[in-house]
Design brief:
heterotrimer, A mainly alpha, B mainly alpha, C mainly alpha, A: mainly alpha, 2 domains, two-stranded antiparallel sheet, 20 helices, B: two-stranded antiparallel sheet, 2 strands, 74% helix, disordered C terminus
């Protein structure tokens, strides 16, 4: 019951709001209310999971492995919370600023449904189904704004990501083929029956699919255009909520289902991640618009997640979860701030930028510390150097664009609605608050990592 | 409230004051200055009331074993006194200075509120930094000082020079701070605790300690503006004078040597590192001193002087004279902030910043001349000032090492003597060259108070000495008594001091003969120095970034897909190398019963090929539907009538729908020529690579069917229980009904998309 | 390119009702052999697509003004599906629980069985049919009115 509540709230909400014109303020407000309710339900579920372990349910009352199993564990809850939170913030932002299209509230709710489902299912095909829900909603959302630029970005996003979905579906089918089951526990148990050479290829399929979703180098070709040209709130949703499917998927399928293959390819992952960190950071130095800088930055930032995953172990996985969550928060604030003009916005941008660069007191500092810890734990000196270089480059590119956009320019444009600006600043202060009191986030990610390695909940 | 919480009082007062000034100041700008001064005064009293050796220990992040530990040891007390005491003087000064400055620059008073709250925030950060005993907490406050200083230096954000200076400072101190974070995490991981006393108790000489020590040292030296990371400080002089007087004399730059002191036991374990620090200190003394002689702008002169003076401190720390270093910092902080404030007062009175256009101000501004003169006497290490003892402890440390070190020490001190005269003499003596306006007493008073303190410290040396001794004790973790007195016998330090004065006077008198020399050095520095190096580095990085993107990044949709496919193929290739498919993968047989199946697959492949080569839309649609129908046929052959039915229906439906839509499109709409379209050869290559990787994956996966398809078997067995004769229906509506529900949701979302897309396009 | 010969128009009109009947049959017999709500929805939808092809967007909208409301059909289909899926949760059973429970007797009316999976299938049918008709309606509305303008 508790397990299904967050899912049910957004799902019913989405259908109920679908026939109405979302440009009307009341519809937007109701949608925000629905999201808040779902978020509260999720927190409630989270408390149960943290205190008394994972919550499970098999659909249709069939035995596990025959019906679809849903399960909320620390990892799923962590990702669901951050993703739902991001969507809630982005939706509230649009509602405060004025919704432009009738379907937006309903689509955001559908996307929440998809994301919540992805994070709370323990069945690989069901994962794909929820993933499709979220993806389809995002395809439509990407056209939001309907200028030529938005549409071109949406087309690119859709085509490249459909390719990713096909690859992932092939991966799911392959896993089913070699294990005979779709239940995650069953897959994890039986996948070792097949030879490594075969399973590695499946792992590659899944890696490519999630790498693409996450916008990981070298599967990033869609990212700069899409994040730059979509509507700011949509870019925030894509990069800070939808992309979580990628990092979650890598963690769940890699560390959870195919740990053997993960450890075999760990060095490869670290190399790819490192290349991504450098490549994204270097490319982010030269663009002249904030949107594009952040887009490139995000390609570099997800590299850290991959590196942490490659290092593995409790420390590495904790770092991966922590970094994913913090990265989402940073991207949310940065993209939302890009869409606004006026006082307060610069401060929000700067706070998030410090967080990206890992400068305390911000949440990002603990992300960097976690990555350093993982690197130090694994005794990988080149990696430590790389993280330093990456941090240095991020200071350079973020603060050059910050000064250009918020210090040098006198904006003649009228300031954006106060509500949206205050919201962004509040979110940015949230990043600082986490930096000042990191315990909940640290515990949350340690718990999430423990869910993968078998300890804890 | 428990007794030990008094340790936190200064920190809490400063933090609350920051918030109060920011909030109330936003409403009533006039309230900001008095409130800020009151906060500083309260914080100073709270610092004085801190129980010696008191400690607060609160849990903070138990998951990582981090604690909020703050202790009021000797080192912390010394720096806390500096931060709050000098802060009080500077804020008092700012209350007089900022309204004048705002009027000159032509912006409203409300904008100055930011300065007060930032200075108080800086004070908070500084207090947190010096009190913290947990390495992670210390790092947080360390970076908070960097952030605050970034905003203070960039205070006049409309001006290009301010922005550049702020960015330079942020990059130098921010990037070096990442090294500190790294060092902190390395220590934390190695020793399993972030508590500094515990770490320092466990460290042992070795490459690990040398490496972490080096990382910490780089961060500290960058903060204290030591060569070659000094260049941010002269640039930072674009900030309003109160900022320079506070950050760039007593606080920000002092934080660097504070850190060196805090981890002194760790640094002391590595002689190599100590020697590097020694060399760095002397280099800063030399370069700072010489360049100070080349400056014409008074605040920049003081900035180079600061670089040189902190060089002294670094030298002393590397020589192990921790108590001397502590005393030096105390003396220098008072002196330098007084001098910075006099520079600002002079500029406000005359509107000039250039030494060539200043002079003879002793008569119109007598009190300022006296206060500033006392401070300058201190900087030149004349007797009856604290400055005398600051050089005394320095010479004492140097003469113990003897030889070259002593000679260099004297040379450095001669430079200080010379540029101090250049500063004070240049401003206050000689011919009056400018108009002088009245300045409020708040600009003169703090200078005078600090100057008198410098003199008082020279006459009654004990209080300062005991502060420094206590600070030394907490750095070295042993008793470090410091007794200061005037010796009449000629022991080495006194002798060195006398030599310094003589040479200094000679240098001042012969000044016209050598003034060109420092300017040449300055010019060389401008052309080849680290400042220029960083600027060129940024330019090159940007160019590299732009060129590499133009070269590497793709611009059209086809290429975007192609890069993903090729990248995936590369990963597959790497995997094959890691785990070769031979002999793991199997090659099955093709029984004759499967020949029809094969034929339909071939048909599907051929249709797909036609689709890729088709010129017209109609053929494209038909070719695609041929692919679909062929596959539907395949399903019937492998005994999946349900799937075949659905495939057939969907295919029919899609074909009809596409034809219907095609009919609505304008005829003869030529395909728009795409930009950057891939060359056909390359397209074929990408296609080939993709096919190869898909083939390898299919082969690898299909080689190993699951020995037991548990789930499918269970579904077959349980279908009757689910009231269904047809297992596929049972799966769709029951066993995996949740998936079906999800998929119909996907259809609904697609509908929502279609509705908004077409409807709003029309209304738009 | 509406294929507007008298022959096509007449045939199209004639086969519409049989198409719907077939669709319902496929839906109902799904539990005995091949077929289910999805196929049924597509079959019924195809009936409308053929009409669209035969009459063209403008005339189709004119003939069936109710096309405008078709999205509601889809939404109610999805809502029915959701309710069927989530209702058991209210009294403590897992999502998608089948009533009557496995092993219990199912009331029959000829081929038509009364259990919740059939209800769910009906929801799928409604949604798929509603989807196809709504899309046609939207296209029709758009191009139909544009045609009227020009």
């Amino acid at each position: 019951m508790l397990l299904l509540l967050p899912l049910a709230i957004t799902w019913f909400g989405a259908v109920a709001l679908a026939p109405f014109d979302g440009r009307r303020r009341a519809v937007g407000v109701v949608a925000v209310g629905v999201m808040v309710a779902a978020f509260v339900a999720l927190v409630r579920l989270g408390i149960t999971v943290w205190t008394s372990g994972p919550v499970e349910m098999v659909a249709g009352d069939w035995p596990a492995g025959i019906g679809i199993r849903l399960r909320a564990d620390g990892l799923g809850i962590a990702f669901a919370l951050i993703s739902l939170g991001v969507l809630l913030a982005a939706l509230a932002y649009e509602v405060l600023g004025g919704v432009h299209e009738r379907s937006l509230p309903s689509l955001v709710l559908f996307m929440s449904t998809g994301l919540t489902g992805v994070f709370l299912t323990a069945d690989i095909f069901n994962f794909y189904v929820f993933f499709e829900i979220a993806m389809t909603a995002s395809f439509v959302l990407a056209t939001y704004g309907k200028q030529v630029g938005h549409l071109r970005a949406a087309l690119t996003f859709m085509v490249v990501n459909l390719l990713g979905s096909v690859v992932f579906l092939a991966g799911v089918a392959s896993l089913y083929h070699v294990t005979g089951t779709l239940d995650m526990d069953g897959v994890a148990e039986r996948v070792n029956g097949a030879p490594t050479a075969s399973v590695l290829l499946i792992a590659v399929l899944i890696f490519v699919a999630f790498g693409l979703k996450l916008g990981l180098f070298p599967f990033h070709s869609w990212v700069p255009l899409v994040y730059r040209d979509t509507w700011p709130a949509v870019a925030a949703m894509l990069s800070a909520a939808l992309a979580n499917i990628g990092s979650y998927g890598l963690l769940r399928f890699g560390a959870g289902l195919m740990p053997r293959e993960l450890s075999l390819t760990a060095s490869g992952l670290i190399v790819i991640g490192s290349l991504g960190i450098l490549y994204g950071a270097i490319q982010a130095v030269s663009p002249r618009t904030a949107g594009e800088v952040i887009a490139w930055s995000s390609i570099g930032q997800v590299g850290y997640i991959l590196v942490a995953l490659g290092i593995g172990g409790p420390v590495g996985l904790t770092a991966a979860v922590l970094y994913s969550i913090i990265n989402s928060l940073n991207k949310l604030v940065l993209f939302l701030a890009v869409g606004l003009r006026g006082w307060l916005v610069g401060a929000a941008f700067a706070l998030a930028a410090f967080s990206v660069a890992g400068v305390p007191p911000s949440a990002g500092f603990f992300g960097k510390v976690a990555i350093f810890r993982a690197g130090a734990d694994a005794d990988r000196v080149p990696l430590l150097v790389l993280v330093v270089v990456g941090g240095a480059l991020s200071l350079i590119y973020l603060f050059r664009i910050y000064q250009r956009d918020y210090w040098a320019r006198n904006h003649a444009a009228p300031p954006s609605p106060l509500g949206a600006r205050v919201l962004v600043l509040v979110l940015a202060c949230g990043i600082v608050f986490i930096g000042l009191w990191p315990e909940p986030l640290l515990a949350l990610s340690a718990n999430a990592a423990a869910a993968l390695t078998g300890g804890g909940s | 409230m428990p007794e030990e919480f008094r340790v936190l009082a200064p920190l809490v007062v400063a933090a609350l004051g920051t918030a109060a000034v920011a909030v109330l100041g936003a409403v009533r700008p006039r309230l900001a200055p008095p409130l800020a001064v009151a906060t500083a005064a309260l914080a100073l009293s709270a610092t004085l009331l801190m129980p010696a050796g008191g400690q607060v220990d609160l849990p903070w992040a138990p998951t990582w074993g981090l604690r909020l530990t703050f202790a009021a040891d000797g080192l912390a007390r010394l720096y806390a006194l500096l931060a709050t005491g000098v802060g009080l003087a500077v804020l008092t000064y700012a209350a007089g200075y900022m309204p004048l400055h705002a009027a000159h620059e032509g912006y409203p008073l409300s904008r100055t509120v930011r300065l007060y709250s930032l200075i108080l925030l800086f004070m908070t950060a500084m207090l947190g930094l010096v009190l913290a005993q947990d390495l992670i907490v210390l790092i947080i406050f360390w970076d908070l000082t960097a952030i605050t200083s970034y905003y203070l230096i960039g205070y006049e954000r409309e001006q290009e020079a301010s922005r550049r200076a702020a960015l330079t400072a942020l990059l130098v101190t921010g990037i070096s701070a990442i090294l500190l974070i790294l060092a902190g995490v390395l220590l934390y991981t190695r020793f399993g605790t972030a508590q500094l006393p515990d770490i320092l108790a466990q460290v042992q000489a070795g490459p690990f300690v040398t490496a972490t020590g080096a990382l910490i040292a780089v961060a500290a030296l960058a903060k204290s503006a030591q060569v070659p990371l000094h260049f941010w400080l002269p640039q930072a002089m674009v900030a309003p004078t109160p900022v320079s007087a506070y950050l760039h004399s007593a606080a920000m730059v002092a934080a660097g040597v504070f850190l060196l002191g805090r981890v002194h036991p760790l640094l002391a374990l590595s002689p190599g590192l100590q020697n590097v620090l020694l060399a760095g200190g002397f280099a800063s003394m030399a370069i700072g001193g010489v360049l100070a002689l080349a400056q014409r702008e008074i605040k920049r002169l003081l900035a180079y002087s600061t670089i040189a003076q902190y060089g002294y401190v670094v030298v002393m720390l590397s020589l192990g004279a921790v108590e001397g270093a502590a005393y030096y910092i105390l003396a220098h902080a008072l002196i330098k902030s007084a001098l910075f404030m006099s520079a600002g007062a002079v500029t406000e009175a005359t509107g000039e910043t250039d030494l060539d256009r200043l002079g003879g101000l002793a008569r119109p501004l007598p009190l300022l001349a006296v206060g500033s003169g006392l401070a300058a006497a201190g900087l030149a290490a004349l007797p009856l000032t604290m400055g005398f003892f600051k050089d005394e402890v320095f010479f004492a440390a140097a003469s113990e090492r003897g030889g070259l070190v002593s000679v260099l020490a004297v040379a450095g001190a001669v430079l200080s003597f010379a540029y101090t005269w250049r500063f004070w003499g240049g401003i206050f003596t000689g011919r009056l060259r400018s108009q002088v306006q009245r300045i409020p007493a708040t600009l003169t008073l703090p200078v005078l108070v600090l100057g008198l303190l410098v003199m008082l410290g020279g006459i009654v040396p004990d209080p300062a000495a005991s502060l420094a001794a206590a600070a030394g004790e907490s750095m070295a973790e042993r008793a470090t008594p410091l007794e200061l007195a005037y010796h009449l016998d000629l022991h080495a330090p006194t002798l060195m001091a006398v030599i310094t004065w003589v040479l200094g006077i000679v240098a001042v008198l012969t000044a016209p003969r050598w003034t060109a020399a420092p300017r040449v050095v300055a010019r060389i520095g401008e052309r080849y120095g680290p400042d220029r190096g960083m600027f060129m580095g940024l330019v090159r990085l940007t160019t590299f970034s732009r060129r590499s993107r133009a070269f590497l990044e793709v611009r059209n949709l086809q290429w975007r897909i192609a890069t993903v496919l090729v990248a995936a193929a590369l990963v597959v290739g790497a995997t094959i190398v890691l785990a070769p498919p031979w002999p793991t993968f199997r090659v099955g047989r093709l029984p004759t019963s499967d020949w029809p199946l094969f034929l339909f697959l071939l048909l599907a492949a051929l249709s797909a090929l036609v689709a890729t080569r088709s010129a017209g839309r109609l053929i494209l649609v038909l070719a695609l539907s041929a692919v679909g129908y062929s596959l539907a046929a395949v399903f019937t052959f492998i005994g999946a009538p349900d799937v075949a039915l659905v495939a057939l229906l969907i295919e029919t439906m899609m074909t009809l729908l596409l034809l219907a839509v095609l009919g609505l499109l304008p005829i003869g709409l030529a395909r728009a020529p795409a930009e950057h379209e891939p060359h056909p050869g390359r397209r074929r290559a990408v296609g080939f690579i993709t096919t190869a990787f898909v083939f390898v994956i299919c082969w690898g996966v299909l080689s190993w069917p699951a020995p037991d398809a548990v789930m499918a078997r269970a579904h077959l067995e349980l279908a009757p229980a689910a009231h269904a004769a047809d297992v596929v229906t049972a799966i769709l509506a029951d066993f995996r009904g949740l998936d079906t529900l999800g998929e119909i949701t996907v259809i609904a979302i697609a509908l929502l998309g279609a509705l908004t897309f077409f409807v709003s396009r029309r209304s738009a | 390119m509406s294929m507007s010969t008298i022959l096509t128009r007449t045939i199209t009109r004639l086969i519409f009702l049989p198409t719907l009947v077939t669709a319902v049959a496929v839906l109902v017999k799904g539990y005995a052999g091949a077929g289910d709500g999805f196929s049924a929805g597509v079959i019924a939808g195809t009936g409308v697509v053929i009409q669209f092809l035969a009459f063209g967007p403008r005339e189709l909208v004119a003939r069936y003004p109710s096309l405008r409301r078709a999205p509601l059909l889809a939404w109610s289909g999805l809502l029915l599906g959701l309710v069927t899926a989530f209702a058991p949760v209210i009294w403590g059973d897992p999502i998608m629980t089948l009533y009557p429970r496995p092993g219990e007797d199912v009331p029959h009316l000829g081929l038509l069985a009364f259990h919740t999976a059939v209800l769910f299938d009906a929801a799928v049918f409604l949604l798929v049919f509603g989807f196809i008709v709504s899309v046609l309606g939207t296209i029709g509305n758009r191009y139909g009115s544009e045609g009227a303008d020009s």
